[in-house]
Design brief:
Largest sheet: none
Structural class: mainly alpha
Radius of gyration: 21 Å
Number of helices: 7
Helix content: 55-70%
Order of helices and strands: HHHHHHH
Number of strands: 0
Length: about 190
């Protein structure tokens, strides 16, 4: 069980590092977009590569930080049943969701995007816009990174569920622990 906890913690550290590094692209996106707008409307000049740049930075950022968002539980979730559920119920729901939905989704994204990305690398694909950015193949590689980082975080979530269901929630890495069990609606603990 400790080795499983170590693997989950390592995955969390990787997604945390990638998330923190790539979230800084948001600042770059704002600065480049601001520059493009000022150049266009104040100086009446425009560079296609700069327009490509902030769009590409946006794509790179959002695909790279997807695993980080899953780690932080920042994704959209309908919490009608999940939020008030006990820790074991949440662990079962997460394990089922990872095995039935998340990992197959990641496999499909990886499988179908690999030829697309390989072809882009094969001829060093660049922007379709005249005067645009070179290196579109690098941006397309982020599709693979997205699938891998999300799948890894899904594995960490599955490990968390296994640890909880195995009676060892104390081994769950601190960054991905479930919040404490909530009292059932209408109980005395809730009123206090």
């Amino acid at each position: 069980m400790r080795s499983l906890a170590w693997v989950a913690a390592a995955i969390c550290r990787l997604n945390l590092l990638v998330g923190v590094v790539f979230s800084w692209l948001a600042l770059g996106i704002v600065l480049v977009c601001f520059t493009v707008v000022v150049q266009r409307y104040v100086f009446a000049i425009s560079y296609v590569w700069m327009q490509d740049l902030y769009i590409w930075m946006n794509g790179a950022m959002f695909t790279a930080v997807a695993g980080f968002a899953l780690l932080r539980d920042d994704h959209v979730r309908v919490d009608i049943f999940y939020r008030p559920a006990r820790m074991r119920t949440r662990a079962i729901a997460d394990l089922a969701g990872v095995v039935v939905f998340l990992l197959p989704f990641c496999w499909i994204v990886y499988t179908y995007s690999m030829p697309f990305v390989s072809r882009a690398w094969g001829y060093a694909e660049a922007s379709a816009n005249v005067g645009g950015m070179p290196g579109l193949y690098i941006l397309k590689t982020f599709i693979i990174a997205f699938a891998v980082l999300i799948a890894l975080q899904g594995v960490a979530m599955a490990i968390r569920s296994i640890l909880v269901l195995g009676g060892r929630p104390d081994l769950v890495p601190a960054r991905m622990r479930y919040s404490p069990d909530r009292a059932p609606v209408g109980s005395h603990e809730e009123a206090a």
